[in-house]
Amino acid sequence: MDWTMPEINAPCPATRRQALERQSQLTKPPGSLGRLEDLAVHFAAMQGKAKPTLDRVWISVFAADHGIAEERVSAFPQTVTRLMLRNFVQGGAAISVLAHHLDARLEVVDVGVAEPLEDCKEIIIARAGKGTANFTKQSAMDETQLLSSLSAGSAAARRAVEYGAEIFLGGEMGIANTTSATAMACALLNVVPDLLVGPGTGLDKLGVAHKSAVIARALNYHAAGLQTPMEILRHLGGFEIAALTGAYLEAASLQLPVLVDGFISSVAALLAVRLQPVCSQWLIYAHRSAEPGHRLVLDALDAQPILDLSMRLGEGSGAAVALPILRAACLLHGEMATFAEAGIPTK
């Protein structure tokens, strides 16, 4: 499969000016709604509408397995990835519950689960393989698998646009994927694992120390090949992380705003921004997770997340929790009266 880097343009500056002008006329003291005002103005520029709307929401959850799980870096066995896929489509997962109550369109994409659910027709199949390889011994994926995963993500973004979505939320599922994301973050930020490694699915202190040692060994093994974002992704990444990267780049090229979830999703966002810096202008960050590495990744992205609730579930759940706040920002911006409409003097 071939995958071409999409061309990305910045959000509309003229609409940003119109939105700022409207904010200055609303019946409130300037700045009194805090970051809600900034979010509304930025979202208006991304939509190209002075009064942005946020009714149609698309959520893609990408799932894949990781060979690095062989190194005992997760508190749960790899079979949980497969079981969670069924839970997603049956409505029992956190993101399933949130998507239902947000009236959002939720799709689940298998980009490389070790044991696929062949009897579950609700799952979209875009598999790059039966999980990545153990990246302490070889590259996580080959070039064909990398391009396939990126393409799966870009296809999801295109489906969102065809649906008429006004925002894209990406989620991920894959046992051991915090190990993969942390290894990539170390390579992208040029920092040692001890600064970034966290408990993931619930490791104790000994487990975290072991996970850090495994990542350090992998970084040393691949040191000569970690020269570009794409090579970092190929050597250390996961199929679902590559899919998120492709989705963010494609969404930005299609002028579809993105609400980025937690640590793993933010590492994918960092990859996308390193590949196409203007992509950053299409990304809104939902929350700061409890994973210690997330803070450094957000700092590298110059990101100001909406929430800080000590979440670390993944699946896109943090983005779904933050969505009502972004909706509130749009509603206030679009439906509040101006001073002129309310007959209130401005002086």
Automatic annotation (TrEMBL):
Keyword Transport: no
Reactions accelerated catalytically: 5,6-dimethylbenzimidazole + nicotinate beta-D-ribonucleotide = alpha-ribazole 5'-phosphate + nicotinate + H(+)
SUPFAM superfamilies: Nicotinate mononucleotide:5,6-dimethylbenzimidazole phosphoribosyltransferase (CobT)
GO biological process, one term: cobalamin biosynthetic process
Source organism of the structure: Candidatus Methylumidiphilus alinenensis
GO molecular function: nicotinate-nucleotide-dimethylbenzimidazole phosphoribosyltransferase activity
Catalytic activity, EC: 2.4.2.21
Protein role: Catalyzes the synthesis of alpha-ribazole-5'-phosphate from nicotinate mononucleotide (NAMN) and 5,6-dimethylbenzimidazole (DMB).
Protein known as: Nicotinate-nucleotide--dimethylbenzimidazole phosphoribosyltransferase
Protein's gene: cobT
List of catalytic residues: E315
InterPro entries per the UniProt record, alphabetical: Nict_dMeBzImd_PRibTrfase (IPR003200), Nict_dMeBzImd_PRibTrfase_bact (IPR017846), Nict_dMeBzImd_PRibTrfase_N (IPR023195), Nict_dMeBzImd_PRibTrfase_sf (IPR036087)
Family: Belongs to the CobT family.
Annotated metabolic or biological route of this protein: Nucleoside biosynthesis; alpha-ribazole biosynthesis; alpha-ribazole from 5,6-dimethylbenzimidazole: step 1/2
Swiss-Prot/TrEMBL keywords: Cobalamin biosynthesis, Glycosyltransferase, Transferase
Organism taxonomic ancestry: Bacteria, Pseudomonadati, Pseudomonadota, Gammaproteobacteria, Methylococcales
Domain of life, per lineage: Bacteria
